[in-house]
Amino acid sequence: MPHLHRFYTDVTPDGNNLIQLTGHEAHHALHVVRLKLGDTIEIFDGAGREWEGRVVKMTRHDVEVEVWECRATGRAPAGLTLFQAGLHRDKATEELIRHGSEIGITRIVFFPSHHSERQPRASDKWRRTAIEACKQCRRAWLPEFDTADSLEDALARATGTLLVATAELPSVPVAQAITSPEVSLFVGPEGDFTEQELGAFVAREAKAISLGDATYRSEVAAVLAAALVMYELGLLGPVRTRSSNWAGLSIPPSG
Of 110, 133, 7, which Cα lies nearest the Cα of 63? Predict the structure, then answer.
């Protein structure tokens, strides 16, 4: 099956099975990809729904696409919420969001810690970065984003198996640490958590996991730890084949 350009929408098809791409997505379609009338593309809504469609109308500012049968992808029953201590650089935050979206993290919550230089603030760029990542890796679900006011606030929101990636506490293998299909994973800032913060995890009976002897930047450690957890949850495979995604769908003729 030929590669199809992929676009994001936050609307559903109208009564005529039409979706209109506007704003950033229309600009990308018109001026970067340079779509033409009749081109076939994919559209996803970040909430598990995908459509294949054909460009039927183009103006200077938007693109109208006729779509056919929707393909719905449900969220896996298992899921990972990553609780990330505030990072020092906006670029590091964007890298974490990009790669976290690519591997399929369900939710990312940023919180301040003692070694964080600043309180993380929600940004529209987080969602834009996630959209671009999901377009590139062809995921149907966008991660959710949130912020917590403190480590205590973040811990109060944690559900399922509670893990902390740190070299400062005795660790257990990831496979043995996970005891439920829902995992809350905490990753510290540069310099790791303080002794007092580690005490809060011990009080909550969190299980520590190790990433080995190497020292990673915080955003790299977060993605690595998340990937290890998601592998054990069975969320990293098998990879679906694009040729089977649209099998059996009735594709209307062009013209």
Answer: 7
CATH number for the domain that contains residue 92: 3.40.1280.10
- Nearest residue to 186 (alpha-carbon basis) of 213, 166, 216, 156: 166
CA–CA separation, 205 and 198 (whole Å): 11
Q: What is the DSSP string of 49-91?
A: EEEEEEEEEE-SS-EEEEE-S-EE-PPPSSEEEEEEEPPS-HH
Q: DSSP letter for 214, please.
A: -
Angstrom distance (rounded) from CA 49 to CA 72: 4
Same domain, 156 and 226: yes
Range of the domain at 37: 6-73
| Residue with tokens 């229309």, as numbered in its chain | 26
User: Do 54 and 39 meet the contact criterion of CB atoms below 8 Å apart?
Assistant: yes
Distance CA 175, CA 168 (A): 19
pTM value is 0.84
What is the per-residue burial (b if ≥16 Cβ within 10 Å, else e) of 125-150? ebbebbbbbbbeebbbbbbebebbee
> How far apart, in Å, are the Cα atoms of 73 and each of 20, 56, 81?
22, 26, 19
CB atoms within 10 A of CB 7: 24
Q: Which residues are CB-contacts of 157 (< 8 A; sequence separation ≥ 6)?
A: 83, 109, 146, 148, 184
Helix boundaries (H) for the chain: 23-27, 90-103, 124-137, 151-157, 174-177, 195-203, 218-232, 242-245
Does residue 237 carry a pLDDT above 50? yes
pLDDT value at 247 more than 90: no
